[in-house]
């Protein structure tokens, strides 16, 4: 909610009770006062119903709330404003009546210290400089700074005011580059940055800031010598950035009115000439993306369309020399090209020999060979081992692998010694398997900008460990944790400089895939929470077709039999379900809750086929998988019957809401965050721009098979009539990909069609624009969700 007000009757009720007690005492009676009668449950809002018929492909339906998305109708928008205010007051009244408002404040006190932002990000080495973002006392937003890497040993702590000044030499050792508090003043109080790139010569920084009035990202280029903004380039609707000519030129893409990147411009810094258009994509269904290779030798141009996926190269030394096609394959395929010492490396999941594959693989070719078909395989695939991601530096290539349920991190020395030998096994490339915690669930490459450094950074995540930022020295196998939040002591574990050196460990070298000497496990350095919380992996049969991975976490202090539980799901875009440790869940775990994650079809982690089996006309598989996991938790006694709650965000909200439609009896409550609910109407009549990937994921409504499938799974179109639904908290924002009318329409229709039960309220909470910008607002929202769940599930 935007604001929590004091209940209008609370003060009067307290005064009346105090007066009654006083009069009883004066009368000399000793009779005890009875309990205060509970407040009557508030009545939910009842927005206007204006049934509007829609007919498509021979199917006719009526939508009573389509007016909520009609921005061109001022009367409808006035109704919408009134309705939003009514929803705010209703949610507020329900929380007060249930005591959830007080409980929210208690939980917020618990959560806020655990969710406190770090004073500074870990410094990133780029050439002779260390770049980092740090907080300033009394300011809302961070400041981007840099200092000489030679002073790293003096870099003790960011929490002291003297951090930016060397008192012995009497000189400043920190340079402020971008103050995002000042940027907020320029952009109407909003300070949201999407892209930022430092030039290779360290003289400029280019970054894009969100302009709320224009609803787009504005390009800014700042001279790091003077600290002043450059007069040009100046552009709106900027999507990507890449440097050329060693920092003398900047390439950037701009979007059309539908937010589709389609043009590439080149700006010569210091020149008075207009920026030059070097490419324009005329096809409405094509998207253009650009990026620098790690060595800044080339700029890759990816063009994705309904017909194909293409990769072009631009020579960064001469950006006007044209684009060279180096790869072309079927549409909607992941393809990343990198350059290393005269070789181009391709990481893709495109079809091989005309046959679709279920995994990513690596190819390479000589950079001077301009025949885009002349790619060669150098690595034989090992059965059961998939390459998840890849990163390069001058001396090594690092592979993020998944072997069964285990993630692995493997470094390979470069250049490869496979010339003329054909493809070889990974074990022949002198791999070094780097240490990971036992329950690693996600490995993300860090900002490894320094191509010439053999130290690479990765963010390691686990369901039972706060995220760890780890630097691995690939030449000697040593590693240390640069930053990790210690949730038990409410602090950050490691400082920078000499304090960090004591944490350095020697990495055990493991060679050969499939061996049992994986460098996993806890040696006390990972700050894992396995002493207090258990992480288990289960497999759930779904529809007699597949086994769905199910991860559960619970406290060792509480038995996980017949507990309340929160089941997470996503299942879209082939993305991994976020199973990282979240500090706000500690409040649920310590109260005996089980946190569960269902890796349903449509998501990532199970290969390309796993994703394809849960999208478009097969989207129903995702919903079946989620319900199977929910049923399993109850039937196996892990969760007490009638004590299960669901949680989904974005496309995950679609998944959970569809499960509620299919099995409302299975859930006691649910939280839907900025959910995608009105799928059919949104895909047919988008109010906000959609990308080709959105249609590829949820279906093309102009194709009969997809249209019928959408009508079958769309949460808004499949609400059961005259059936009790669980309590639901729906949150949305004025600044999300899915408009607030999606949530508002679903909430109104559920209340209209289902059996009303004041003990199972359907609540709509409108949050601030960008909650993630404020740890206070983030803690407040998390506390509201937890208070709602505990009151509706545990205490009901």
Automatic annotation (TrEMBL):
Superkingdom, natural source: Eukaryota
Stretches the record annotates as Disordered: 16-53
Molecular function per GO: serine-type endopeptidase activity
Residue ranges annotated for the Peptidase S9A N-terminal domain, each copy included: 49-484
InterPro entries, A to Z: Pept_S9A_N, Peptidase_S9_cat, Serine_Peptidase_S9A
Biased composition (Basic residues): 22-34
Residues of the Peptidase S9 prolyl oligopeptidase catalytic domain: 583-752
GO biological process: proteolysis
Compositionally skewed regions (Pro residues) per UniProt: 35-51
Family to which the UniProt record says this protein belongs: Belongs to the peptidase S9A family.
Function: Serine peptidase whose precise substrate specificity remains unclear. Does not cleave peptides after a arginine or lysine residue. Regulates trans-Golgi network morphology and sorting by regulating the membrane binding of the AP-1 complex. May play a role in the regulation of synaptic vesicle exocytosis.
Protein name: Prolyl endopeptidase-like
């Amino acid at each position: 909610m935007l604001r929590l007000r004091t209940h209008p009757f609370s003060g009067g009720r307290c005064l009346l009770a105090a007066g009654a007690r006083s009069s009883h005492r004066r009368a000399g009676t000793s009779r005890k006062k009875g309990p205060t009668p509970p407040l009557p449950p508030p009545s939910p809002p009842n927005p206007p119903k204006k049934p509007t018929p829609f007919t498509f492909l021979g199917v006719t339906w009526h939508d009573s709330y389509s007016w909520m998305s009609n921005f061109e109708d001022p009367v409808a928008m006035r109704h919408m404003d009134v309705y939003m205010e009514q929803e705010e007051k209703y949610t507020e009244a329900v929380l007060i009546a249930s005591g959830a408002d007080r409980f929210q404040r208690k939980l917020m006190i618990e959560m806020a210290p655990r969710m406190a932002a770090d004073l500074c990000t870990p410094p990133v080495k780029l050439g002779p400089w260390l770049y980092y973002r740090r907080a300033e006392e009394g300011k809302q937003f961070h400041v981007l700074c840099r200092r000489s890497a030679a002073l790293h040993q003096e870099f003790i702590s960011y929490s002291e005011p003297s951090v930016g000044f060397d008192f012995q030499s009497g000189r400043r050792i920190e340079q402020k580059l971008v103050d995002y508090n000042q940027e907020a003043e320029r952009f109407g109080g909003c300070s949201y940055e999407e892209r930022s790139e430092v030039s290779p010569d360290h003289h400029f920084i280019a970054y894009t800031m969100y302009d709320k009035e224009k609803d787009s990202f504005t390009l800014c280029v700042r001279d790091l010598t003077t600290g002043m903004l450059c007069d040009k380039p100046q552009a709106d609707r900027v999507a990507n950035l890449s440097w050329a000519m060693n920092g003398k030129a900047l390439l950037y893409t701009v979007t059309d009115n539908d937010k589709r990147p389609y043009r590439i411009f080149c700006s010569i810094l210091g020149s008075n000439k207009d920026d030059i258009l070097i490419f324009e994509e005329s096809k409405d269904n094509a998207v253009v993306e650009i990026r620098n290779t790690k060595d800044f030798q080339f700029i890759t141009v990816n063009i994705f369309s309904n017909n194909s996926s293409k990769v072009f190269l631009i020579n960064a030394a001469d950006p006007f020399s044209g684009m060279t096609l180096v790869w072309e394959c079927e549409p909607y395929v992941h393809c990343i090209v990198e350059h290393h010492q005269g070789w181009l490396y391709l990481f893709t999941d495109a079809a091989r020999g005309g046959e679709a594959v279920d995994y990513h693989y690596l190819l390479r070719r000589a950079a001077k060979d301009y025949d885009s078909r002349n790619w060669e395989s150098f690595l034989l695939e090992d059965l059961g081992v998939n390459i998840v991601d890849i990163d390069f530096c001058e001396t090594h290539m690092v592979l993020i692998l998944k072997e069964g349920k285990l993630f692995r991190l493997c470094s390979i020395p470069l250049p490869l010694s496979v010339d003329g030998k054909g493809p070889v096994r990974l074990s022949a490339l002198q791999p070094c398997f780097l240490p990971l915690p036992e329950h690693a669930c996600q490995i993300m490459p860090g900002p490894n900008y320094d191509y010439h450094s053999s130290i690479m950074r990765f963010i390691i995540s686990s369901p039972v460990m706060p995220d760890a930022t780890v630097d691995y020295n690939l030449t000697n196998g040593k590693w240390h944790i640069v930053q990790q939040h210690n949730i038990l002591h409410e602090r950050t574990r490691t400082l920078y400089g000499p304090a960090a050196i004591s944490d350095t460990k020697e990495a055990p070298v493991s060679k050969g895939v499939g061996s049992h000497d994986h460098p996993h496990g806890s040696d006390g350095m990972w700050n894992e929470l396995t002493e207090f919380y258990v992480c288990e992996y289960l497999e759930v049969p779904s529809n007699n077709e597949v086994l769905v991975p199910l991860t559960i976490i619970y406290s060792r202090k509480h038995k996980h039999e017949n507990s309340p539980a929160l089941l997470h799901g996503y299942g879209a875009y082939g993305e991994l379900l976020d199973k990282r440790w979240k500090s706000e869940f500690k409040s649920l775990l310590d109260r005996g809750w089980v946190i569960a994650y269902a890796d349903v079809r449509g998501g990532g982690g199970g290969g390309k086929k796993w994703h394809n089996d849960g999208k478009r006309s097969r989207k129903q598989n995702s919903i079946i998988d989620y319900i199977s996991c929910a049923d399993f938790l109850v039937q196996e006694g892990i969760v007490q019957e009638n004590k299960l709650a669901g949680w989904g965000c974005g496309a995950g909200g679609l998944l959970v809401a569809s499960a509620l439609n299919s099995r409302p009896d299975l859930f006691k409550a649910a939280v839907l965050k900025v959910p995608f609910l009105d799928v059919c109407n949104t895909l047919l009549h988008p109010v906000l721009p959609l990308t080709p990937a959105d249609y590829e994921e949820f279906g093309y409504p102009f194709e009969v098979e997809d249209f019928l499938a959408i009508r079958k799974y769309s949460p808004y179109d499949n609400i059961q009539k005259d059936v009790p639904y669980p309590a639901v908290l729906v949150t949305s924002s004025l600044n999300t990909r899915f408009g607030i009318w999606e949530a508002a329409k679903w909430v109104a229709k559920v209340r209209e069609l289902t059996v009303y039960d004041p003990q199972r309220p359907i609540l709509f909470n409108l949050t601030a624009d960008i909650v993630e910008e404020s740890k206070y607002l983030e803690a407040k929202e998390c506390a509201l969700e937890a208070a709602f769940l505990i009151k509706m599930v545990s205490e009901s």
